[in-house]
Specification:
Oligomer: single chain
Cofactor: Cu cation
CATH topology of the largest domain: Immunoglobulin-like
Catalytic activity: 4 hydroquinone + O2 = 4 benzosemiquinone + 2 H2O
Mean pLDDT: 81
Structural class: mainly beta
GO molecular function: copper ion binding; hydroquinone:oxygen oxidoreductase activity; protein phosphatase inhibitor activity
Pfam families: Cu-oxidase (PF00394), Cu-oxidase_2 (PF07731), Cu-oxidase_3 (PF07732), Polyketide_cyc2 (PF10604)
Low-confidence stretches: 268-284, 469-484
Helix content: under 10%
Keywords: Apoplast, Copper, Glycoprotein, Lignin degradation, Metal-binding, Oxidoreductase, Repeat, Secreted
CATH architecture of the largest domain: Sandwich
Number of domains: 4
CATH superfamily of the largest domain: Cupredoxins -  blue copper proteins
Length: 621
């Protein structure tokens, strides 16, 4: 959804122009030409061809759209049209425009569009999106405050594309903060400039500036997410990425009747608190499902998300954990889920009643609506199996069957305890790669680099901190300090580097949690790669015994993995993506405290094995 301001243009005058649909260019300057194709102007069924610069194209050519009028209502000053064909990848989208009197002789246009990705997302080489970073007043938990959003939405817009598509996202910064966007889990093959972490692959987009993220979705299909990757802005700046299979390629599981996205998040009130006090940040105000917290104590508003289902139908749920500092359980009362994909990698079907996701992880599961009429509670609740303050607030929503009466009582759900380690272990240990002929698990069987990282949280003296000390997080007892220029730019121009890996070398990394202060689980994310989780366990890793138990046949493939509390996780990957790639804990507080580092993958031979030159609009520090 977007708002367009037509200043010094009264509503009646604007509507007179708008209702004469061929005069589109008079109120939308980016339109150069509007041509009648069929039907009568202003009457549903009317078809027009619009051309101009409505959507940016990488080749600088004009965009064109064939539009059919669906409805027009002079009373509410609104109309709806469908994009039947275009050269910008929006075929099938349904657009709604409502014109509102803003006062002072001005008019606001509320412009939104929806697309059914299952039916209408056509084969296309290039997808264009425009993300405007803006402040928006939001009312949640019976209070109102301004939050940072993309296009005024919380959560932000879902990015739809197909495997193999080239995606261009123009991000314009309309706020007073520096911003970047990370496309979490997107491989970014040779396009590290578009990965997004501030001061790792790019300098931030400064206020009033813009940058076009340009990447191709190679060899991936499923659910991912995007989020801000500077300071703690991802608290409200996040959304889902849905990568559909290539046109005509079926899912490797029964086709669902409908798809639903569910973005889980937490909402925190923090301004540098984690650094100033030396302690963990404030507890979250709430956990949300698609921006809705559900009923909350001391607030009469029941702002809950409702998933409407029809008996006998199968739904594909795309569940995203966009929380800042919480690993979460997801459960629907008396309904089982069949996991078919995690982190945009297909899995063997796994039946369960509880999903477990760390921040940054995604899980796609089939839901069979087989309970008849009724209303069932959906719950997201935190996991923490150590003596650390936890956001122990359950976010709730409802699954509601069609024809359920308004007074029907809600069937409640039994959620796991906050320290339900066995539930997390069973879920994590049960996931397996699909490893089919079409989607093989190409696990590296030999290892060129065998690495052992210890990770954890400790305490350092701090004379400027309120408590005289502060928490620090580290990898191999080294706490990472953010640079003042982007590491990828420094590497590209030959100035310095970090941990180097030769192109196409194979890596085994054992991540060991330690007990410096209080051991806890660490959801760890590697940018630029998928990896195979070949082993995990509690206690200390035994290099003599544990490797013999590694799964090298069908281990789950991920981009983010939870290292168990006081335990270890072993991953393997092939360093086939040149560039500088961030590796960090995805609990934002631990990243802030220093639990992060970067890999530098060197160029291979020739341009196809080398990082592309930096784009001309790359932000400067």
């Amino acid at each position: 959804m977007a708002w367009i301001g037509l200043w010094d243009s009264p509503l009646d005058e604007v509507w007179t122009v708008v209702s004469q649909t061929k005069r589109l260019s008079q109120w939308m300057p980016v339109v150069e030409r509007c041509t009648d194709l069929a039907g009568d102007e202003g009457i549903p069924g009317y078809v027009r061809l619009v051309s101009g610069f409505m959507f940016p194209r990488h080749d600088g050519e004009r965009s064109w759209i064939k539009e059919r009028l669906v409805a027009m209502d002079p009373t509410s000053h609104s109309y709806v049209y469908k994009m039947e064909a275009s050269n910008v990848g929006l075929d099938g989208s349904v657009n709604s425009l409502k014109f509102v009197d803003y006062g002072d002789g001005s008019t606001l246009v509320n412009w939104s569009f929806e697309i059914d990705p299952l039916e209408e997302l056509v084969e296309c080489k290039i997808r264009h999106y425009h993300f405007s970073v803006v402040l928006k007043n939001a009312t949640k938990l019976c209070t109102s405050k301004a939050i940072l959003t993309v296009n005024g939405k919380f959560p932000g817009p879902t990015l739809y594309a197909r495997e193999g598509d080239n995606v261009l996202v123009r991000v314009t910064n309309h706020v007073q903060y520096n911003v970047t966007i990370h496309w979490h889990g997107v491989r970014q093959l040779r396009t590290g400039w578009s990965d997004g972490p501030a001061y790792i692959t790019q300098c931030p987009i400064q206020p009033g500036q813009n940058f076009v993220y340009n990447f191709t979705l190679t060899g991936q299909r499923g659910t991912l997410l995007w989020h801000a990757h500077i300071s703690w802005l991802r608290t409200t700046m996040h959304g889902a990425i849905v990568i559909l299979p290539k046109k005509g390629v079926p899912y490797p599981f029964p086709k669902p009747d409908k798809e639903k996205g569910m973005v889980e998040a937490d909402t925190e009130a923090v301004v540098n608190q984690a650094m100033q006090t030396g302690l963990p940040p404030n507890i979250s105000d709430a956990h949300t499902i698609n921006g809705h917290p559900g009923p909350v104590p001391n607030c009469s508003s029941d702002d809950a998300y409702t998933l409407h289902v029809e008996t006998g139908k199968t739904y594909l749920l795309r569940v995203v954990n966009a929380a800042v500092n919480d690993e979460l359980f997801f459960k629907i009362a008396y309904h089982n889920l069949t996991v078919v994909e995690v982190d945009a990698a297909y899995t063997k079907p796994y039946n369960t009643d509880t999903l477990f996701l760390g921040p940054g992880q995604t899980t796609t599961a089939l839901l069979k609506a087989d309970k008849g009429v009724g209303k069932y509670l959906i719950a997201i609740s935190p996991f923490m199996d150590t003596i650390v303050a936890v956001d122990n607030v359950t976010g709730v929503g409802y699954l509601r069957y069609n024809r359920t009466l308004a007074l029907t009582p809600t069937t409640l759900v039994s959620i796991p305890s906050v320290n339900a380690t066995p539930v997390t272990s069973v879920f994590s240990d049960s996931l397996r790669s699909l490893n089919s002929k079409e989607y093989p698990a190409n696990v590296p069987l030999t290892v060129d680099h065998s690495l052992f990282f210890t990770i954890g949280v400790g305490i350092n003296p701090c004379t400027t901190c309120i408590n005289g000390s502060r928490a620090v997080a580290s990898i191999n007892n080294i706490s990472f300090l953010m640079p003042t220029t982007a590491l990828l730019q420094a590497h590209y121009y030959g100035r310095n580097g970090v941990y180097r890996l030769a192109y196409n070398s194979t890596v085994q990394l054992v991540i060991q949690g330690n007990n410096i202060v209080a051991p806890e689980s660490h959801p760890t994310h590697l940018h630029g790669f998928n990896f195979f989780v070949v082993g995990r366990g509690v206690g200390n890793f035994d290099p003599e015994k544990d490797p013999s138990e590694f799964n090298l046949v069908d281990p789950v493939e991920r981009n983010t993995v939870s290292v168990p509390t006081a335990g270890w996780t072993a991953i393997r990957f092939r360093a086939d993506n040149p560039g500088v790639w961030f590796f960090h804990c995805h609990l934002e507080v631990h990243t802030t405290w220093g639990l992060k580092m970067a890999f530098l993958v060197e160029n291979g031979e020739g341009p196809d094995e080398s990082i592309e030159p930096p784009p001309s609009d790359l932000p400067k520090c």
